[in-house]
Amino acid sequence: MSSSIESQVREVLAEQPLQEGALLPLLHAIQERLGHVPPAAVPLLAEHLNLSRAEVHGVISYYHFFRSTPPGRHVVQVCRAEACQSRGADALLAHAEQVLGCAAHQTRADGAVTLEPVYCLGLCASSPALQIDDQMHARVTPQRFDQLIAKLEGLR
Ligand code: FES
Fold first, then answer.
1. Does the beta carbon of 140 lie inside 6 Å of ligand 1?
2. Residues 81 and 132 in one domain
3. C-alpha to C-alpha distance for 109 and 87, rounded to whole angstroms
4. Is 31 a domain residue?
5. DSSP at 88
6. 74 CA to middle of ligand 1, Å?
7. Is residue 155 domain-resident?
């Protein structure tokens, strides 16, 4: 682990109160700080929380939200939960894959974008929904998707 990553993980561990059920908040905090949860954080978390490495790894792999590799410069998250599915989320995700040149769960080879299916962004009444970086968008048609993507740098 690079000392920079290790020190950032250690900083996150030191900042958070040690309490029951601390693993998920810590994983969120690490991903927020680093953009992902590096595999090398697993032994640090295990030691800090007195858990086995397998327990920590199991939680990370159970929740699709956590990435083990750094994301692209932009992150596009397409909701695939029920309400969005009923309003064309599958077609929207297929469109996103084609336009971005990037399969779901992948980062494009040039590192410009990561495409992630997610399960509910809280915009169910205005589906289909997606999130691009920190910005949520509702009622997204393929045409609207193209407009949103055109505003991002380095994606074409
Ligand atoms: S189901 Fe897509 S935002 Fe809730």
1. no
2. yes
3. 30
4. yes
5. T
6. 21
7. no
Q: What is the torsional sign of CA 8, 13, 17, 19?
A: positive
Distance CA 59, CA 122 (A): 23
- Predicted structure pTM score: 0.83
How many CB atoms neighbour CB 47 within 10 A? 12
Confidence of residue 81 (pLDDT cuts 50, 70, 90): very high
Q: Which atom of ligand 1 has the smallest separation from the CA of 128?
A: 2
CA of 108 relative to ligand 1 center, distance in Å: 25
Query: Rounded to an integer, what is the distance from CA 34 to the centroid of its chain?
Result: 12
Domain containing residue 23: 3-62
- pLDDT tens per residue across span 35-72: 999 999 999 999 999 999 999 999 999 988 899 999 99
Q: Mutation test of ligand 1: which of 77, 116, 124 has the most ligand atoms closer than 8 Å to its C-beta?
A: 124
Residues near 92 by Cβ (< 8 Å), separated by ≥ 6? Answer: 78, 84, 128, 130, 140, 141, 142, 145
36 and 90 in a single domain? The answer is no
Rounded to the nearest whole angstrom, what is the distance from the C-alpha of residue 117 to the centroid of ligand 1?
Answer: 11
User: What end-to-end distance do the CA atoms of the chain give, in Å?
Assistant: 33
